[in-house]
Amino acid sequence: MAFKDLMSKAKEVTGAATEAASNLVDEFNEALPTIRALGFTVKDLRVGMGLVPEIGAKLIASADTIDVKKIGPSDYLMGDGARSRPPQWK
Questions:
Q1: Would residue 78 count as lying in a domain?
Q2: Which of 50, 47, 46 is nearest to 17 (CA)?
Q3: Residue ranges making up the domain that contains 46
């Protein structure tokens, strides 16, 4: 009986980890247009499965690939939470 309980718990943990990894990949995919608009290229994407799923990517930045139409001019949050606009867009 103890072995069956252990297997049942293992299946629950596996299901939860798989769902968490899937959600993490979905969030990363949603962020890709913004990442690209900011001038980053994604290289070497890694997804790790375990009790704590992880995702890692090497981002290569280039000022030539920034898409200003997608990122500005709009309000954005400063580090202190205040809304501001870059000086050149005022």
A1: no
A2: 50
A3: 2-65
Task: Give CA–CA dist 52/13, Å, rounded.
Answer: 10
Cα dist. 49→10, 16, 17, 61, 64 in Å? 14, 11, 7, 27, 35
**Structural domains in the chain (count):** 1
Nearest-5° Cα angle at 39, 35 to 42: 55
33 vs 44, 60, 73, CA distance in Å?
17, 15, 17
Is-above-0.70 flag for pTM? no
Tens of pLDDT, residues 44-84: 888 887 767 788 889 898 888 888 777 765 555 555 555 55
**Integer Cα distance of 51 and 46 in angstroms:** 16
